[in-house]
Amino acid sequence: xxxxxxxxDVEVGTELPAQxxxxxxxxxxRYAGASGDFNPIHWNEKFAKEVGLDDVIAHGMFTMxxxxxxxxxxxxxxxxxxxxxxRFTKPVLVPNDDTGAVIEVSGKVAAKLDDRAVRVxxxxxxxxxxxxxxxxxxxRLA
Length: 142
Known about the structure:
The termini are close together. Strand 4 and strand 5 form a beta hairpin. Helix content is 23%, strand content 36%. By secondary structure, it is an alpha+beta fold. The protein has helices at 25-35, 45-50, 60-75, and strands at residues 15-23, 81-88, 101-112, 117-126, 129-140.
């Protein structure tokens, strides 16, 4: 695959389509199985509260993975992502109900770089709080 977005068609300030990602306790159990991360803060409410959390929290790497989907869906090729990094600022609390939590992600082209690449800055929010800081990806475009 190759990037479906042309470098020439993108300007600083170009907004990527925002997306929302639901997260339930079932999502967390499935992710734990896939990742091998069975830390009880991600599935056991009693344990999470005993260690000072308000509730069970989503895996940081799960949150990070959901956020980059805004970029990979926009560019059309996950292989076009050359760099990606975030800082974890707040946990995504996932209540034990039928709704769970929602991660809301938006992105904007922040800079045009050499070699037909752009830097995309992401904003990831849950329950009105920024859950990822310094979320940035460098993407090579067509």
